[in-house]
Structure formats: C-alpha cells, structure tokens
Specification:
heterodimer, A: about 270 residues, mainly alpha, Arc Repressor Mutant, subunit A, three-stranded antiparallel β-sheet, flat, B: about 190 residues, alpha+beta, 2 domains, 6 strands, cell division (chain B), cell cycle (chain B), Segregation and condensation protein B (chain B), WH_DNA-bd_sf (chain B), cytoplasm (chain B)
Chain lengths: ~270, ~190
C-alpha cells in the first residue's frame, strides 16, 4: 500500500530526531488522535517511509527499524486477539506506545520552550570578578613535630595492611603480552637465512617461549606458506613440523623482506 | 542598621563579587539569618527589575548575580564583539529537557525516552557545561548519572530546578488507555 502522503515526503531520516519524532510527524500530518492511533494506517505509512529511503544509514536506520517492528507487533496483536488474554481484562496493545509517545511529546515541547527562553537570556552580559589584591593573612600553625611523626608512622602501618601479598602473582596471571605476527614472520625469515630448513619446535618451543609467542610463530609459518616462501611438512600427527625454505639459492635478508613486506603490512 | 543600609551593602557585595554570590556568604558578612537576607534581596530584585535601571539581579540556586537587562542587549553589544555561543542542536535541547526533569539519570534512560542514541548530544551539553556528571548509578556497570548545572539555570532563566514549569508529570505507566483517551479528549 502506497500512500500519496509518504510519496510527497521527500524528507530524510536526518530530519527526525528518532523514531518517535517520525511517528509524531505522521500523527500530526494525518491529524490523528494521539490517544487513539489508527495503528494500521500509521504502520503502513511508517514502513513506506522507511522503504522510500534511498540508502539508509544502518546506524541510524536500526533505531527506526526497532520502532517498525514494534508497530507491526502491535498491529498483529490487534488483528489476532490473544486467546489467553480474552479471559482476562482486555489490554490495549497500543498502551505502552502511546505512553511513550505522550512522554516524548512533552519533552519535545519543553525543548522548544527552552529554545525560546535561551533567546531571552543569552542577551544578558555579566561582569567578570576582578582579582582583588587582598593581603593573605598567614596563620602560624602550631604542631608538635612528634604528632606529625606519629601520624606518618600510622599511615605507613595502614598501608602495609593494605598491600596484598599475592598481588605480584596476580599481575603475572593477567599480564598480557603483545606479540605481533609481523615480528614473528620476520623472525622466521631471518632464521631461514642461515639454514634452508628447521624444525618448528626448535625455534618456537614452549620451554623457552610463552604460549602466545608459539601460537603466533605457528601462524607466521602458515602465512609464509601461503606466500609460497616456505613448505611445511609433517610426517604424521603430532610429529615434528619441518619448515623448508622455498628459495633454493642464498638470498640476502633485505631482498627477502622486500618481497614479503607488502604482504605483511596488515599484521 | 536600617534596611536601606543593609540593601546598599548587599548591593556592593553582589557587584564586587562579580560571580554568583552565595546567600550564605551574605548572611555571614551581615550577620543575618537566611530568611531575612532572602527577603531583603527579593525586595532589591523587584526594585531593580521594575525601575529604570539597566541592571538586574538574578537568583541562581541560592546565589545572586548582577547582569545587564536583556532588552538593552542591542546597545551593549555595540560596545564590543560578543562571542556568539554555538547553537545547540534539536537533539541537545531534547536531551536537556529530559535531564532537567529526571535528574540525576543515566544515558540509557535518556535514550529509552528518545528512542535514539544520544551520545553526541550529551557530549555537547557537557562541553557547554549545561550538564555534569553526578556520580554513578549503583547498578551493574556503574553507569554515569547526569544532572543540570547552574550554567543551565543561567542560560535558560531559572532560579533553581524547582522553578521548572510543571509538565503535568502524572505517572502515565499507571494509566490504562481508556483513561488516557478520556484525558486526551478532555483537553
């Protein structure tokens, strides 16, 4: 169902402060009673409006879509009376929507009032306080140094109790090291300069390296294999992984780097 | 000390202070109780506003400040270039309206009422010092609470938050639609 009204609407969503604002606009345009909204008409118009958008900005549109589904939900409820609810008191499915609309309308009206009031009060000018040169009265404090000392010791004592002995171990637990894939790729390449092949576990062993490093190292050899710089061979499950350089002849480091540099920029 | 002398002293205090001068400070200096001081100032404010003066005294949250009368702005502005504050967006006014009546409240509550994300409006209002953070809500995630500032009162001409116009805020959630329709039709 296409209504001429929405076709005439060449407004964008940006013109509305949100789904309530748009609903409100439609209600006013059609001179509907806000307390007795013809839900069919308003839902159709609201949806037409969304369809008419050429390229909705999803971020914005999502909030409008939530309202659309709310409207459809109410519409369906009004078409199909709930069997469970028939026995109980009839609840108008529009109630919550109306409540929120009326509430929103109030704030919108007050916002307009604020604008008007601001126009009056922005026309006032204030004098800034002048820095007055009033002599500062210095009071001599009489404190026994012994009291200070006692206080200081008390603070130290209190702090001692606060320090958690286990704290050191905890920081180790949550230490989050950053291992970049790029650095590991470079490491493998460097290692392959001197040898034509190596066993994965000799370079990345859990005995000498953190879990993160080993995992990233593994990802590094996968990436290099993808670039066709290395071959990876494993004879059977859980056996040693051999990493073999694909570049047969000796190459200098920089040459190799320049070849892969473009590929690893993203890491 | 007679009344007119006290008024003159208060006048000189408010003028000298420049900023909004707290009522308590006035009471302290003149050794007056709050009620008496308030009545004196109230009387002064009426005199200022109703006589041919170019200055008025404004009340902001139990503080008092002098400023030029808005109606003479076109002349005052000829003195110097007055920096125009950047206008607020429609969204910012709506958010401000919601905060004014429901403070302190969280951003989530604002967005629930408006049905849209209100981040940029809140940020803008914070920048303009019209709202400020008012601690955190004791709920999961400890969301920030917001409230309006004295600057808000100053910019929009309120004496205090109690001075806001009644929005006939009856709790709509308690009403059912039949009643709402009645309310609507009786308006």
């Amino acid at each position: 169902m296409e209504s001429s009204l929405t076709k005439a609407c060449t407004l964008k969503l940006d013109n509305f402060e949100g789904p309530f604002d748009l609903l409100f606009h439609l209600i006013e345009k059609n001179q509907m009673d806000i307390y007795d909204i013809p839900i069919n008409v308003i839902t159709d118009q609201y949806l037409d409006y969304l369809y008419d958008l050429q390229s909705p900005d999803l971020e914005v549109a999502s909030e409008f879509l939530v309202m659309a589904s709310t409207l459809l939900h109410i519409k369906s409820k009004m078409l199909l009376p709930d069997k469970k609810e028939e026995k109980q008191e009839e609840v108008d499915p529009r109630e919550e929507l109306v409540r929120r609309l009326v509430e929103y309308k109030r704030y919108k009206e007050f916002a307009t009032e604020l604008k008007e009031m601001e126009k009056i009060w922005e026309k006032t000018v204030y004098r800034l306080p002048e820095p007055l040169d009033i002599p500062i009265i210095e009071e001599v404090l009489e404190i026994d140094p012994q009291v200070l000392r006692k206080q200081y010791i008390a603070i130290l004592e209190r702090n001692k109790k606060k320090i958690n002995v286990g704290a050191k171990n905890i920081t180790k637990l949550i230490e989050h090291e950053k291992v970049s894939l790029r650095s590991k790729i470079r490491e493998v390449v460097k290692y392959l300069i001197s040898k034509t092949s190596f066993v994965f576990s000799e370079l990345f062993s859990l005995k000498s390296r953190s879990k993160t490093e080993v995992v990233t190292g593994f990802m590094a050899i996968l990436e290099l294999a993808k670039m066709k710089k290395v071959k990876i061979v494993q004879n059977k499950q859980f056996s040693d992984i051999h990493v073999i350089s694909n570049t047969a002849e000796e190459r200098d480091e920089h040459h190799l780097y320049s070849e892969i540099e473009n590929n690893i920029k993203e890491f | 000390m007679d009344i007119s002398t006290m008024e003159s002293i208060i006048e000189s205090l408010i003028f000298s202070y420049g900023d909004a001068l707290p009522l308590d400070k006035i009471c302290e200096i003149l050794e007056l109780d709050r009620k008496t001081a308030r009545n004196l100032i109230k009387n002064m404010m009426d005199n200022y506003n109703n006589s041919n003066r170019g200055i008025i005294i404004r009340e902001l949250n139990d503080k008092y400040q002098m400023c030029s009368k808005p109606e003479y702005f076109e002349y005052v502005s000829k003195l110097y270039q007055i920096r125009q504050k950047q206008a607020l967006s429609q969204a910012a006014y709506e958010v401000l309206a919601i905060i004014a009546y429901n403070q302190p409240l969280t951003k989530a509550k604002i967005e629930q009422i408006r049905g849209v994300n209100s981040d940029s409006a809140v940020t803008r209002l914070l920048e303009r010092n019209l709202i400020r953070e008012a601690g955190k809500l004791d709920a999961p995630g400890r969301p920030r609470l917001y409230e309006t500032t004295d600057e808000f009162l100053k910019c929009f001409g309120f004496k205090s938050i109690r001075d806001l116009p009644m929005l006939d805020i009856e709790d709509l959630s308690q009403l059912n639609l039949d009643e709402l329709i009645d309310v609507g039709n009786s308006k």
